Protein 1
Amino acid sequence: MKRYIGTLAALALAGFMLTGCGDKTVEEGVSLLEEQDYKGAAELFEQAVEKDEEDAEAQRGLGIAKWELEDYEGALSAFESALENGGDKTAEIYNLMGNCCMKLDQAKQALNYYRLGLEEEDASDELKQEMRLNEIAAYEKSGDMESAKSKLKSYIQDYPDDEKAAKEAEFLETR
């Protein structure tokens, strides 16, 4: 998950620079994210959001910080606000949103976010693979074992060397 933070922090900084915003709060928040000072980053992003509730970059940064602080409800809310306010719809954001939902026992909602993430053009092969595994877990958690088996079968065809998936297939056969 840490690999996402660097990428998302870079995206947040790029967005900040492109908007030409004179407020340094978001930029400082991004720096704290990169330093893994998530509490400090969250405080700065919250200040930026208080100044401008429609600041998508501040909302995204707040979501990242809250995810790292294991405040999954707060992270999900911040990510949703970022998207509602014109923030970039990226595979990484959708994956994080799905992961938040999984932590909050909202598997059906997580499935929606994973699907959206898989549809995004910016999804790397590695991220697509991760989201496909996450999707299988969400189907299992929601109790839809048939869909989980079907998705896993397709996954194993595409990634035959994934030992974790092979073990998962064995487990699902018992269900």
Protein 2
Amino acid sequence: MTNITYHPSDELLRSHANGELPESLSVAVSLHCELCSECKNKVEAISQELAKMTWQSNSQTMCTESNEPTVDYTTMLESIMQLDTDDSYLMSTPTYHVSIADKTFEVPYLLHRYDDLKWNQLGAVSRARLIEEQDTRSNLLHIAAGGEIPNHTHKGFELTLLLDGSFQDESGHYQKGDFIWLDASHEHSPKTTEGCLCYTVQNAPLHFTKGLSKLFNPIGGLLY
């Protein structure tokens, strides 16, 4: 598996496990966890912790309202979670593919629910809308080999999860699985040698900042 450098914060993972994120961000974290065993294990541990807390709270309520003998539900839950499981009967993880231009990418199966993709192209960049939640929008974004997005900043936040390929900007080099969160304090110009496919979430259009690229601001919504 690719060595992943950039991950969601522990706070974001906890919000995801607790069901507090909007769909666009929850999908982003889920996709990252499909590619990153480290964060997948963290989410599973947080989920177990939350389940344990809920169980304890419910058992205390039940004991308070009942005259029945007290049952140690915490020990019972821990015993259940420590049981060995036989996963030999489980189906293998299904795969899903996304095609754009002359390339086909294998992506996490979660994306199969958004299979009616309509691509819009602007130069080397193609975008397919997935989710709209008021001002927040998620997309699949494909940048062709040798492509670049001119220098820009963000009026809101921009989350980029790299699903395939690689790209680089002034801050570093990013590979499959990397989870990059930027805001108005960041300014960059992403470019890719081999091409890349990303899942992105934004809550405002890009704002181009240098030279002739400023002319793109009236149509910045095409990338949002």
